[in-house]
Amino acid sequence: MTASVLIVDDQVLIRSGLRQLVGASPAFEVVAEAGDGAEAVAQARAHRPDVVLMDVRMPRVDGVAATAQLMRFAAPPKVLVLTGFDVDDRVLDALEAGACGFLFKDLTPWQLETAMRTVLAGGRVIAPAVLDSLVRRATGPARSGAVPDGLDRLGGSERRVLALIGSGLTNAQIARRLHLSQASVKTYVSRALAKLGLDNRTQAAILAYEAGLAGTECGWDRDAV
Predict the structure, then answer these.
(1) Quick one: which of 36, 167, 173, 209 is 20 to 30 A from 145 by CA?
(2) Whole-prediction pTM value?
(3) What distance, in Å, lies between the first and last C-alpha atoms of the chain?
């Protein structure tokens, strides 16, 4: 079954490039485009897309405000917010508005397809460099070396998985990196969250960052999704 996509960006060339990226996968189809947040909400109401690729900075109504409006739909789409900035101070705003991910615009077709599949499956996707901005806003200066409560109760695999969550990896990427099945990774994630008293992966990423674990299991660059 083909998933429908709405592309939102105030620059025609960016929309054209994203349309080509989406078109590279037979699993996704662009059903509409919009040049600002207000038009995005109107197009989403008319076409009911499964995924919205949302520019964060646009005139009139920006991507954060548009995302918040889309979340009021009875069946809201999955919103992936895109930025052209290395560090964007709207990261936390977009996620709090209901976005499922925050990525750079210079994506490869594989990265974009993977991100869209991830959010449709109920996951989140945050580019590693963007994750750093999110964590710094949420926690203030990192307290590298601090040991949060419960961390000493984690087994070796749970600790490695936590470190990779802190670096922004999805379960599929963690599975490949550690040579595990995705089912095993999911189990380790669930155990780690339970032992640490956390509700979600964002909290786990923040804890890993505070403890100085993020990035200890792999070298990151901005091309990872």
Answers:
(1) 173
(2) 0.64
(3) 24
